[in-house]
Design a protein that fits this description.
The structure is a single chain. This protein is mostly helical. It contains five helices and no strands. The protein has one domain: Ferritin (Up-down Bundle). The protein starts with a helix and ends with a helix. The relative contact order is 0.15.
């Protein structure tokens, strides 16, 4: 059983993950409209991952005799300016999620909630990977440049990163 304080914090994380799920889905649609199918596929995959993260916490809260709350999700933006700005936004969002996970870990430690502490370790590692992935994409965008013709190469690079990540997941 978890404390009401931990239950509330985990439900806030469920909402944050759900919000990311729909933000990334909206980004996928925007990429598709820009003719960037590789980036659209990547963002759709990211959206599915965020849904899985949300459900994992949702299920955990129920398993420890808490009450998981289905979050209300506000409408995400539908225009992201440029592909670089979009990935900068994704990176900033992942950093926000990392801080939130770290706060949950600190709360679990403070409450001597070793079960939740252990559960959250997967998220700590996952966030390290997510931030690294976004930094890699932003680094590639800087190398390729942001001119109109560069978009083709950015799209292909993100598509390759996405394919490699999906292959690695299948091999796990």
């Amino acid at each position: 059983m978890i404390s009401k304080k931990m239950e509330k914090a985990l439900n806030e994380q469920i909402a944050l993950e759900g919000s990311a799920c729909f933000l990334y889905l909206s980004m996928s649609a925007w990429c598709d409209q820009q003719g960037m199918s590789g980036c659209a596929q990547f963002m759709r995959h990211q959206s599915a991952e965020e849904q899985m993260h949300m459900m994992k916490i949702f299920d955990y809260v129920g398993e420890v005799n808490g009450h998981p709350i289905t979050p209300a999700i506000k409408q995400p933006a539908k225009d992201f300016g440029t592909i670089q700005k979009m990935f900068e936004q994704v990176y900033a969002h992942e950093q926000k999620v990392t801080k939130s996970i770290h706060k949950l870990v600190s709360l679990a430690k403070a409450e001597d909630d070793y079960t939740t502490f252990e559960f959250l370790q997967w998220y700590v590692m996952e966030q390290r990977e997510e931030e690294d992935s976004m930094r890699t994409i932003l680094d590639r965008i800087k190398i390729i440049g942001t001119g109109a013709q560069s978009l083709y190469f950015i799209d292909k690079e993100v598509e390759a990163i996405s394919a490699a990540a999906e292959a690695a997941e299948e091999g796990e």
